C-alpha cells in the first residue's frame, strides 16, 4: 500500500452574462483499493459546493452554477492505493442467461459504443478465438496493431465506428472501440476513467487516461487497450457504459475550456494541509508539481 496525493486543476472562461451550469465527475473514486484519507476543493467564485459521496456505479458527481468570467477549481485528494493484483483463477465467459442483472446494461450498444454496427467485424476477427481471457487479449492485440494511437486525436463526439473508419483515435476513442468489439462478442464491458501514472525517480508522472473493464466468471477484469503493461498504477475516477456516463465535466452554456492539469506526489503531507481549506472563496493556487498530464479529459457540452 502506498500513500499518494493528487491535484487536478480546471480553468474555464464563462462567456455569457447569465453564467453557466456544470456537472463535474472528477473526484477520485472511493473503493477497496482507493481509501480516501483527505480531500478538498477550492473554487475562485463564492459558490456552494460539497464534495459528493459514492453514487450510482460508484461515480462521484456534483453540480453547480458559475457566474460570468474566470472560473477555476482546484481539487486535491490524499488516499492510500493498494495495487490491484491479478488473481490466478478461472476467467471464463459467462452465458447471458446467468449474468448478474447489474451487468446486463454493459451488453447493449450505447452512444459511443455501437457494438451492433461492429458485430460482423468482431465475429470475423475474434469469433474463433479461445473464449475468456484469450479472446479479450486477441481483441486488445488487434486494436493495438491496427488502430493508430494519437493522444490528441478524436473529437469529443467521435464514436467507436468513427474510430474504426479513421483507424486512429485518442485513448477514449480506442477504449470505446475495444468495448464495442467485446460487447459484440457477448462479453459485458464498460469504460473506466482515471489517472494512469508511472513511477518517476522523485515523483509519479500522471496523465488522464481511459481503460476498459470486461466481465468474466472471475469478476471484472481491468485492461488498458493502449499500453501492453499492467494496470496496477491506475487511479479510478468513474465507470459507465461509455463517455456519456463518465465525463469529467458536462457544460451547459457558453464556456471556453482551458487545458486541465493533473499532478501527483508520493508520501506527501503538504497537500493534506490543502484539505483544511474552505471550499469557497478566493483561489490560492499554488504551483503544480513539474509532472503534469497534458491530455484533455472528456467533456460534454450542451
Structural account:
This protein has six helices and 15 strands. With 302 residues, it is α+β, with helices and mostly antiparallel strands. The protein has two domains: 2-82 and 246-301, Immunoglobulin-like (Sandwich), CATH 2.60.40.2250; 96-244, C8orf32 fold (Roll). The strands form four sheets. Strands 1, 3, 5, 13 and 14 form a five-stranded antiparallel sheet that branches. Strands 4-2-12-15 form a four-stranded mixed sheet, with no helix packed on it. A four-stranded antiparallel sheet has the order 10-9-8-11. It is globular, with a radius of gyration of 20 Å. Residues 270-302 have low confidence and may be disordered.
Which regions contain 5 or more consecutive residues with pLDDT less than 50? 270-302
Arithmetic mean of pLDDT? 83
Number of helices: 6
Q: Which word captures the global form? A: globular
User: What's the helical proportion of residues?
Assistant: 10-25%
Instruction: Tell me the β content.
Output: 25-35%
Structural class: alpha+beta
Termini distance? 41 Å
Secondary-structure element order, N to C:
EEEEEHHEHEHEEEEHEEEHE
Q: Got a strand count?
A: 15
